[in-house]
Universal stress protein (Streptomyces physcomitrii), 292 residues
Amino acid sequence: MSGILTVGLDGSEQSLAALDWAAHEALRSGQELRLLHACFWQPTDVAPVLAGRAAEEEWARGVLAEAAARARGLGPGLTVSTEVVTAPPVDALLTASVDSDLLVLGSRALGALGGYLVGSVALHVLRQVTRPVVLVRRPRAEGRNRPADVVVVGVDDTEAPGEEVLEFAFAAAAAQGLPLRAVRAWALPTMFSAEPLVAPAVDAAGGLEAWHRQLLTEALRPLREKYPQVEVAEHVEIGSPSQVLLSQSGDAALLVVGRHLAAHPTPRRIGSTTHALLHHSTAPVAVIPLSA
């Protein structure tokens, strides 16, 4: 681990929400907080029209200085560094992610149509990055009822790659002293997708739902043993993964999902479930790339 947590800043409300989340996480973990701004990043609703590169860089340094002061004000002992990069924001963030344990970005709420036409920096980074990313949309809620907070993790397969998602979720819950809610959605198989070899296992388990509960329990067992201090609740429900996860994460401090790395990434290759969660979840969403 590098010990660096990087947050991308553009001065928007969403990026400041990401800053607050990242600063609290860095304080908790003892990591260095790196604040990054790419000079080509100029949202029209945030930055004024700037004349010349010198003025643009001056504005960027001002944004980072204010952000650093804000972060340091959240608690003593926080190590904060700032960096202005003269590069397109996607390239700058991807480069910074290489030596970061975690990349934190702001995420805007978009409508159904906008969600599929979006050219946002966050989505373009997400489809290419190979490190964990947390996307934050709303400001950190102060004074929330702490016992209601929970880390929610989506479990959609039980093969080895999925352990990366579970490891991240269990570690986050353990570090924050929060319970974990593991969620598995399932659907009735079609006549074309039904696996003959699965039928005996389903029958032995007592039906499809019971079988999925069994799969979830088995997937969680190694992590339960590794993190015995984490209180775990298992939830299995029929429905689409995005709908089930959204219904189960209204009180979440963090929602954790996986994303398979695409050999040839395109703007839409982040998965329909992850895409839906990014645009509709009110909780910060951690997206963990799967190595296989």
